[in-house]
Design goal:
The N and C termini lie far apart (68 Å). This protein is an alpha/beta fold and 170 residues long. It is 49% helix and 15% strand. The protein has a five-stranded mixed beta sheet, sandwiched between helices.
Amino acid sequence: MKKVVILIVICSMLFLISGCSIKKTDELSDAEKFANEYSISKKNPFHYVDTSDVLELFKNGSAILFLGNSDCEWSTYGAKVLNKVAKAEKIDRVYYFNPEDSKYKNDKDYKKVSKLLELDHDISLPIVYVIKNGKVVDQVDYSIHDDSTINKETTKQLENEYLNLISQYI
């Protein structure tokens, strides 16, 4: 009985100590949320946007826009490669939009965003866009799904595609 009480006390203390040091999700910065979601460094340029923010970009805005879904291994791969390239090119802001969130929440602006980005119902993520002066200049939808494997060659190829894309933004 004594051991059970001691075990309960120890577990309670650990719970209290760990609870004090954990930040709540709403207290995290966008970079911290993205790092947790995509398993990358907390020093990253990603900023969350929703459909209304994306629509604002099409009113003479300029940006790099990453569409992804952390449940998709290819989006996670793309995010890691884009993060590396963005850091190397000293890009301090990449907008992150998860179309799946809006598509299934019946977001009224999703149809507008979908049309502007020319997304079809069965989009394949990740997709990275360069938007300049409110217009899509170029995009990379890296077709690395199904029969592809991640290796040095595919990573280098994707890095080069992202570098070419970013050069149009700079």
